[in-house]
Automatic annotation (TrEMBL):
<feature type="domain" description="HTH cro/C1-type">
    <location>
        <begin position="18"/>
        <end position="73"/>
    </location>
</feature>
<protein>
    <submittedName>
        <fullName>Helix-turn-helix transcriptional regulator</fullName>
    </submittedName>
</protein>
<dbReference type="Pfam" id="PF01381">
    <property type="entry name" value="HTH_3"/>
</dbReference>
<keyword id="KW-0238">DNA-binding</keyword>
<dbReference type="InterPro" id="IPR001387">
    <property type="entry name" value="Cro/C1-type_HTH"/>
</dbReference>
<dbReference type="InterPro" id="IPR050807">
    <property type="entry name" value="TransReg_Diox_bact_type"/>
</dbReference>
<dbReference type="InterPro" id="IPR010982">
    <property type="entry name" value="Lambda_DNA-bd_dom_sf"/>
</dbReference>
Length: 85
């Protein structure tokens, strides 16, 4: 997963959305989600904190594991929110 030097507003919001979707699944910890996806726990942690941007494939796999539409994670974003300045 590409790791930005500082989180953009979009990365932070994406992480918040993933976090909220995971918390909506009773008892699903970062560790359990990471195990389910066969990725490192730190990968989920970094995504949720906006420190890492998941690949398209990883985002789809996360959505599938959380029984949600991957579009829910990116809906409403604009290029302006990708600006880190």
């Amino acid at each position: 997963m590409p790791r930005p030097s500082s989180p953009s507003p979009a990365s932070t919001e994406l992480g918040r959305r993933v976090h909220e979707a995971r918390k909506a699944v009773k008892g699903l910890t970062q560790e359990k989600l990471a195990h389910k996806l066969d990725i490192a726990h730190s990968g989920i942690s970094d995504i949720e904190r906006g420190l890492a941007n998941p690949t398209f494939e990883t985002l789809v796999r996360i959505a599938d594991a959380l029984n949600t539409d991957p579009g829910d994670f990116i809906r409403g974003f604009t290029a302006k929110e990708l600006d880190r300045s």
